[in-house]
Amino acid sequence: MPQFISKLLYLTKGHHKSLLVIAFLLLIISGLEVVGTAMIGPFITVATNPNIIKTNYWLGLIHNQLNFVSEQYFLIVLGAVVLIAFYIKAFLSFEAQKAVFQFSHTLRGDLCHRLLKTYLEAPYSFHLRMNSATIIQNVITTTEIVCINVVMSLLTAVSNGFIIVALTLLLIKTSALAMLQIALLLPVLVGLVKLLKSRLAFWAQEGWSASKEIIRILNHGLGGLKESRVIGCESYFVQQMEQQTNRLAKNFSLNASYGNLPRFVIEAFMITFLVSFTLLYVNLNQGQGQNLTAVLGIFGLASIRLLPAISNLIGNINTFRPNAFAIDKLFFDFQEIEKSKSLSTGVSYRVNNLLSSSEPLPFSAWKQIVLDKISFQYPDTERKVLDEISLTIQKGQSIGLIGKSGSGKTTLVDVVLGLFLPQSGDIKVDGVSVYEDLRAWQNLLGYVPQSIFLIDDTVERNIAFGVPDCLIDLDRLRRAIEIAQLSEVVEQLPDGIKTVVGERGVLLSGGQRQRIGIARALYHGRDILVFDEATAALDTETEQLVTEVTKGLSGNKTIVIIAHRLKTIEHCDRIYQLDRGRILKSGTYQEVVLGQ
């Protein structure tokens, strides 16, 4: 339990004051609940037998101290007090309920925001081993489970717990015999809750697992729609979806149904109690019908409040317990990412904020980049993918990287991009380590991969990727389009730069998507452009067009190219051939490729 509380406090940090306010409000409500319910007995007694004022010490004291002119007037005031107490309690109960709902849904929004920020800032290696369906589910579904099924249920359970304890103390004072009868029925209820505990937890986790599979099937089926249509395997994904939706429906319906079972048992118990208590009281207390009326009045009203309170409490517990695993899901993701970000990698580095950096770039007038004995190996592997790689890149140079698959080309580029941190070695710009301000270094880099990521939005927003509309510089946008040789393409589009390109740019050709990727890097004013086999998937004619764009940038931009076809790096100033994480050859195109 202490571990659960510490995890819950970690996930709710920034909201602890709101929790204290809610707890204080719940205490006040439980107090008013007792006051209002306790006064029902005296009110009924005075209404049925006004002479009780003279024989009852407390009623007589209040009547004499306040100088009531008549018993009827005393009854009116007593009724007014009861009404005021219940109206105040009703108002505060509504406010408390609203506060609980607002707290839970606000917390969910905050967790979604924190999770997205954490995932975006997570080391690249974290995303390599995480399925995107799990990440999407955590942001959308797991946060809902935590905030609605766990936090809201827990707060509601605490609220009902306060009311149950307060009313129970009142009932014990009113009639110990009645409470003894209720106590005899409780073991059956507790046994039922314990019996359901493990099954409810199993059904909840099975439903959660089915939910994750549904997201994964959606990603696979819609993500490979073209291939699915050509192969004709749509029914495969439909069948998978049917299996998982049936699994989800079965487990969630069982969880919801049996979670409410104790409520129906409680209703039967309460009726059993009222009938048996009335019979016992009449037999044991002959001639005291008025007392029975008062006691039953208190118990009747208390039962009206206790019945839903106990039902809700058990329902909240049955909702909270099986879904508590979601707390661990989010907590361990936050902890794992924080731990992986803080691990020492053998180099001194500082990350100001991977989402934004307000500090001026220290590399604005740089002249050369030096990779000094860079070594890197993936977690849980024995072989180094990069083994003491050293090379120098002068400003304005074009560099080509070649080698067999698995030689380390892409990993080297990922290290240069700051996606991986080397176990040893350093990258320096004019003698200053880029790890002194990694974000500032990344602000110099533009990346054009083999498959350009395009959002389902306009050409304008795809080029000015990540820039709010109000901050888009149209002059810079136009220059980037011209240099990337996209002007003619944009002119032919129905809405120009306002044309929506479709999901992943499906309405554009491969060459057009690549040139949008180049324009994106140019718009953001990046000095160093990295092309990771950017023309590998293009036909010869389109490849030639994109290659001409990169040639035109030579001298003005520093370019690093991973080559799929050797002809695309013919214009490079220097070629590096990698083999098993080492530089095998380096020199001009004629020296390395042609062997002259």
Automatic annotation (TrEMBL):
Keyword check for Transmembrane: yes
Boundaries of every ABC transmembrane type-1 domain copy: 20-320
Bilayer-crossing regions: 20-44, 73-92, 146-172, 178-196, 264-282, 294-314
GO cellular component labels: plasma membrane
Cellular localization per UniProt: Cell membrane
InterPro entries: AAA+_ATPase (IPR003593), ABC1_TM_dom (IPR011527), ABC1_TM_sf (IPR036640), ABC_transporter-like_ATP-bd (IPR003439), ABC_transporter-like_CS (IPR017871), P-loop_NTPase (IPR027417), Type_1_exporter (IPR039421)
Domain of life: Bacteria
Keywords, comma-separated and alphabetical: ATP-binding, Cell membrane, Membrane, Nucleotide-binding, Transmembrane, Transmembrane helix, Transport
GO MF term set: ABC-type transporter activity; ATP binding; ATP hydrolysis activity; ATPase-coupled lipid transmembrane transporter activity
Topology in the lipid bilayer: Multi-pass membrane protein
KW Lyase (keyword) present: no
Pfam families the record matches: ABC_tran
Domain (ABC transporter): residue spans on this chain: 369-594
PANTHER family xref list: ATP-BINDING CASSETTE SUB-FAMILY B, ATP-BINDING CASSETTE SUB-FAMILY B MEMBER 6
The name this protein goes by in its record: ABC transporter ATP-binding protein
